[in-house]
Amino acid sequence: MGQRNLIIIAVAVVLGLFAVWLANSWFSSVEDRQARISDEQELVNLAVARQPLEFGAPLTRDNVRMVAWPANSVPAGAFRSANELIAGSNVAIRPIEAGEPILSSRISDRAVLSANLPDNMRAISVSVNQVTGVAGFVTPGDVVDIFLTRQIPGDGASGDDKMTSVLLENVHVLGVDRRSNDKDTKAEVVRTVTFEVDQYGAQKLTLAAQLGTLTLALRNVKDQAVGATTLVTTSDLAGSGLYIPDRTPAPAAFASADRTTLPASFGAPRRPSGPSMTVFRGTDGTAYEVKRYGN
């Protein structure tokens, strides 16, 4: 019995040593591979966010750290020193995720919307309601198309003759009311939406707001295609050619006239209430009422 236990212990020790050897070999191979990668690819220090940074968050030593980054894949505007980031009053003007490189396009010394605008672009706000604003589901960072509905011009157009055209396509939403954070996706009834457009687009929006009703159409942010647009008028709607006349009964021709002033020829002959007979004299016939016996 004792010899059997010794054999089991010896086998367990051998298996344990073999497992340790396999683990050491695996870790050694990983280290060797990483060393070879480091030797083959030059690494540089890069400033990244230690934690998620929201709009207006100041950059400090607590939320910025340095990491090794491949030198041939450093993004444009990255910082290779944390001191130049935290030395001033830099703040995030766009959300930055943890571990993401901090770029010059995402920070500014002022947490204002104007610092978030690219060159030659403008921020302009328009009024919307619960319907035209997609029931409040439009949030900062979304992309929308803007429709304009207005009266068809011309002296022959009626009040129901409307047309809808695509005013602008693929427009970036900067803010909704006072919200400019794309992390806030809760649907709310909004009154104003701020867009990022060029100067010509800002002029079109300003004029269109005076001519008719602006409506937003939410689109997939991955769908950047801008195609030919079609003008839709009332005649394009199903049933627009139907016409139902006025069913109000027309008044009688003489309903309000004074019957005493009408000639006798307008009155219909009185029909006998009982038996009658007609006596013809030549071609003229006259109806006479026949009284019953005893009357």
Count the beta strands.
12
Taking all residues together, what is the mean pLDDT?
A: 77
What structural class do the secondary elements suggest? alpha+beta
Number of domains: 3
- Poorly predicted ranges: none
Put simply, the count of helices is 3
Brief characterization of the structure:
The chain has 295 residues and is α+β, with helices and mostly antiparallel strands. Helices cover 19% and strands 25% of the residues.
Notes on the structure:
It contains 3 helices and 12 strands; from the N terminus they run H-E-E-H-E-E-E-E-E-E-H-E-E-E-E. The chain is α+β, with helices and mostly antiparallel strands. The protein folds into 3 domains: 43-115, Alpha-Beta Complex (Type Iii Antifreeze Protein Isoform Hplc 12); 120-236, no CATH class; 259-289, no CATH class. Strands 5, 6, 7, 8, 9 and 10 form a 6-stranded antiparallel sheet that branches. It has a two-stranded antiparallel ribbon with strand order 1-2. The protein is elongated and about 155 Å long. The protein starts with a helix and ends in a 6-residue tail after the last strand.
